[in-house]
Every structure is written in structure tokens, then in C-alpha cells.
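Structure ticket #2291
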Amino acid sequence: MPGCAVTVMRRSNTPTPGLSLRARALQWLSQREHSRQELRTKLLRFAGDEPVDVEDLLDQLAAQGHLSDARFVESRVHARYARFGNRRIELELRQHGLVPDPELQQQLRATEMARAHEVWHKKFGQRAVDAAGRARQARFLASRGFSAEVVHKIVSTDHDHEST
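Resolution: structure written out below.
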């Protein structure tokens, strides 16, 4: 219609210039969960010479329930669970300065074979007929972070006779 102004909303990963550190933090946290270390790194780019303010802000956000490493771990594991192995998930958590608790590690170990089989089945669907094909399948699963033992079992087992 003539004379109507159209407002285009632009979504960006970079917060609007001039926002306070708190506003930036809340904007990032509203998009997805962040680990304390990750949010600290992002905020320090904008903090200038005031890194103490960043630590105080992180403490406030955690106290108010906006920032939670436990929620971040849960979110990250949920997002990676179906596609990646234990090594990959644990590596990503360590990169964020977090260590999975023993209960989570046990749960991941208990389901790794089933998850690897599902990933393998979705990608390949059938056993490789030659050594080169088995090596290709093994490299794929290893690149997804599945353990060598699990990769070996998946690649060397005849899946045609298993029920899924």
C-alpha cells in the first residue's frame, strides 16, 4: 500500500552497538544457553579496561538464574546426543571449561553403541563389502567422536540380521 512504512527486523548475532554489558549478555542468553566461560569471552570484547565488571555481572546473572552451566551442559548434550559420540561431546564441554559429571558420563557410555548404530545406519545403511569401505565407515564414525571399540563393533558386525 502506498504511504505505508515497512519495518524490516534484522536479526544478528552481534548485539546493537551502545548496549550495556548486561543488555548484551541478556540478548545472547535469550538466543541460547551459554557457558560462563563463553559469555565471559564475549563480554570481555566489549568491556574495555573493566574486566572486574564482567565477573560481577556474571555472578549477578548466575544468582538471578539467567546463567547456568548445568543448563548449558544439558542443552549442549541434548543438541549433540543423537549425532555424536562421547569423545566429541566431552571435548566440546571441556572447550567451554566444563567437565561432565560421572552420572552423565555413565549415561553417555551406556547409550553410545545404540547412538553409533543409528548414525551409521542413517549414513550407510548396509555393511561395507570391502576393506576400503569399512575404513571409510570407521573414519566417519571416529570423526563423530565415537570410541574405537564402538566403531570397530559397528563396522565389523553384520547389521542385516539385527533388529533396530
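Closing remark: The two ends are 57 Å apart (CA to CA).
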